[in-house]
Amino acid sequence: MRHGRINGFMKKVQQEDYIIQNLGECAIQSPVIVNDFTPDSKRLLLKQYLDYSNTGKNKDEKVKREIPLSVEVAGPREKIFFDPSKTKAAIVTCGGLCPGINDVIRAIVMQLYHRYGVRNIIGIKYGFQGLIPSYGHEIVELTPESVENIHREGGSILSSSRGQQNIGEMVDALSRMNVNIFFCIGGDGTMRAAERITEEITRRKLSISLIGIPKTIDNDLNFVQKTFGFDTAIAESENAISCAHVEAKGAPMGIGLVKIMGRLSGQIAVGAALAQNDVNFVLIPEVPFDLEGENGLFKALEKRLIRRKHCVILVAEGAGQELMRTNNTPQETDASGNIRLLDIGYFLKVRIEDYFKKAGIQINLKYIDPSYMIRSVRASASDSIYCSALGQYAVHAGMAGKTGMLVGLLKDEYVHLPIRVVTSGKQIDPEGNLWMRVLESTGQPPSLLNKPLDPPVEEHVVI
Ligand SMILES: Nc1ncnc2c1ncn2[C@@H]1O[C@H](COP(=O)(O)OP(=O)(O)O)[C@@H](O)[C@H]1O
Ligand SMILES: O=P(O)(O)OC[C@H]1O[C@](O)(COP(=O)(O)O)[C@@H](O)[C@@H]1O
Ligand SMILES: [Mg+2]
Questions:
Q1: What is the model's pTM?
Q2: 247 and 254 in contact (C-beta within 8 Å)?
Q3: Among 20, 16, 22, which residue's Cα sits nearest to residue 1?
Q4: Domain ranges, residue 176
Q5: Annotated binding residue at 262?
Q6: pLDDT tens digit string along 85-109?
Q7: CATH number at residue 277
Q8: Where does the record place the Phosphofructokinase domain (predicted)?
Q9: Helix locations, 58-126, DSSP H
Q10: Strand 209-214 vs strand 2-6: parallel, antiparallel, or unpaired?
Q11: Residue 278 to residue 296: CA distance in whole angstroms
Q12: Which end of the chain is more exposed for a tag (fewer CB within 10 A), N or C?
């Protein structure tokens, strides 16, 4: 039996209260096409916590061996590790820009200063470069006054960079500057670097806590329900899609083609398509497609145009890369080692125009690429709320002496995740409900392939 607070009164809540009424027996087969139907017997456990505080010695051993799969819940700890009056904290922002970075910096500084009384807070400029003396970047002092208004602007007041730096030299700098808590705001690349920095700190037996905060519009960190900036990026892409829809309807046989960021995952494209129901085809890296052939994109597009006279296509920048590559195409990477993508947007524009020209059908294709405009803006209200929570929880974790971890949302709960589990990359499951909802809302065919793919060998991690 549990207790719930209803209208200010405590009420006993029992399992019976959660039984859903049914009008009667369901005897008719549903016309909805999905891979898995949801049985009534599938239930969500309501806020189950596990408290193992009374287990005596070897608690960590107990967590490893006896406690079911679970993660540490974030929040202020009764006892802390660092003495606030002697604590020095450093903040770095790495990788691509993302709405909300300044909100997180502000929240960390305010929380350290006002809740814990930490007076020594520094900012590392231009990502990990700022820890390497030869770059000559200045170290900036961060105070409540200096960060007071920064959340009103996009970008990062500390700036950012890509490119690997020497791990040993970075730890030398942290140690030389007497940093006790190192806050790393970044995406998958930053977390890979953070993991290596933590290993080096541990190897040197230094008492430096490293806390990650999940930044990236791509939303591709494993186990993290949502990275900050993702919601804003979706909201910003709406404008481009609306314009594409207007343009498509504004001319005979109009096609609005929009390319949206998303390197290895189509999370932004999927979110934007579901937020903006004008999209008719969503193309993402996780779901391969053919151009030609009876089931390919061109034929599906042609059928749609004949039927409805206009069409909106939303393509994630990482989609269809295999269609453009030959064995001789060089695989280029950026300074951080991320694969440089070929331009699927322009490629599709040219190929679609070519197809319809050959078919003798006159179309009007308008191509829109909002590019960096979806990530250099300030955070939306919901992202700002998320950013302040992440900043606050990151400080609680750092002051408690936790390290090699990241704060994030998982199943609507703020939790501590070991950095090593988040870097393997999160993708959209083509068999999952999210993609099914995209297919339902766009009406695009379940597959744009002429030949079905071989079944995947690896199992997906289900959380
Ligand atoms: N395996 C790694 N070892 C050390 N540094 C890394 C590693 N992977 C990425 N980095 C560094 O982390 C920083 C951020 O990575 P990047 O991929 O650019 O952005 P993001 O963190 O947003 O994914 C860059 O300076 C990059 O070089
Ligand atoms: O800023 P760059 O180097 O042009 O990179 C663009 C890439 O950065 C992103 O905006 C975000 O990537 P990260 O968060 O991993 O840095 C991607 O969507 C996009 O592919
Ligand atoms: Mg990344």
A1: 0.92
A2: yes
A3: 16
A4: 1-229+379-427
A5: yes
A6: 999 999 999 999 999 999 999 999 9
A7: 3.40.50.460
A8: 89-397
A9: 59-65, 101-110, 116
A10: unpaired
A11: 21
A12: N
Say if residue 449 is exposed, middle or buried (CB neighbours under 10 Å; 0-12, 13-18, 19+): middle
Q: How far is the CA of 226 from the centre of ligand 3 (A)?
A: 14
ipTM: 0.99
Which residue minimizes the CA distance to atom 12 of ligand 1?
Answer: 190
User: Residue with structure tokens 């959380």?
Assistant: 463
Integer Cα distance of 404 and 419 in angstroms: 6
324 known member of a binding site: no
pLDDT band at 17 (very low <50, low <70, confident <90, very high): confident
Q: How far is the CA of 450 from the centre of ligand 3 (A)?
A: 32
Q: Which amino acid is residue 324, in one-letter code?
A: M
How many domains are there within the chain?
2
Token pair, residue 289, equals 């497609």
Residue 453 lies in a domain: no
Same domain, 242 and 275: yes
Place of tokens 């405590």: 10
**What is the residue-wise DSSP string for 132-151?**
SGGG-PPEEE--HHHHTTGG
Q: Please list the active-site residues.
A: 218
Q: In the 8-state DSSP scheme, what is residue 113?
A: I
